[in-house]
Amino acid sequence: MTRVLSTSEDRSVRVWDANTTACVCSVIPDADKHGLAIPPAHTIVAIPGNSNEFVVATKSPTIYIVSLDGSVRRAITADKATCNEFLAVAVTPRGKHVLAVSDMSILHYVDIETGSIQTTNNKVPLEDVIGMACHPTLNIAAFFSNDRRVPVWTA
After folding, report:
1. 3-state secondary structure (DSSP) of residue 150
2. 38: which residues sit within 8 A by CB, 6+ positions away?
3. Can you give the pTM of this predicted structure?
4. Nearest-CA neighbor of 53 among 88, 116, 98, 119?
5. What is the greatest pairwise CA distance in the chain?
6. CB 111 within 8 A of CB 122
7. How far is it, in rounded angstroms, from Cα 107 to Cα 78?
8. In the predicted model, is pLDDT for residue 152 greater than 70?
9. First vs last Cα of the chain: how many Å apart?
10. Is residue 124 within 8 Å of residue 106, measured between CB atoms?
């Protein structure tokens, strides 16, 4: 079954069957480990090879790994010196890492298994990143914004 993920300002995450357009399930992620409700998400990304979990990026310095039952499996927070909020995220094709761009245009590298987050020395050459994508077989990521430029980053 092909599934489509969606999110909305009410914090709900819905999983849709792409063939029938029926809602398979709807969850509202639980509070994080500190008991704080997760802010509304702007990006939700499926984790390749893991049909039960997905990445949720919110207007905060935290990335959440959430399961289909709504429980927060892991909350990964960046250092305030390099990130006030994440603007764009992408999961690598193997589903092991998340690349995330902060509002300070700094690229972060997150290990999904361990929850470790590394701030790279790479600054994305865009002011307002609105999205990014990873190449399916190479270590390449592309970033885009409203200024019509698409800078490419290679590992």
Report:
1. coil
2. 11, 29, 30, 31, 32, 56, 58, 64, 72
3. 0.82
4. 98
5. 46
6. no
7. 11
8. yes
9. 33
10. yes
List the Cα angle 41/38/3 in 5-degree steps. 45
The DSSP output letter for 57 is E
Each residue's pLDDT tens digit, 74-126: 888 898 888 888 889 999 998 999 999 888 888 898 999 898 888 877 778 77
46-57 mean pLDDT: 88
Residue owning tokens 């997905």:
54
Tell me the one-letter amino acid at 33. Answer: K
d(CA 57, CA 54) in angstroms, rounded, equals 10
SS3 call for 48: coil
Q: Is residue 4's pLDDT more than 80?
A: yes
Confidence of residue 34 (pLDDT cuts 50, 70, 90): low
Classified as helix, coil or strand, 106 is strand
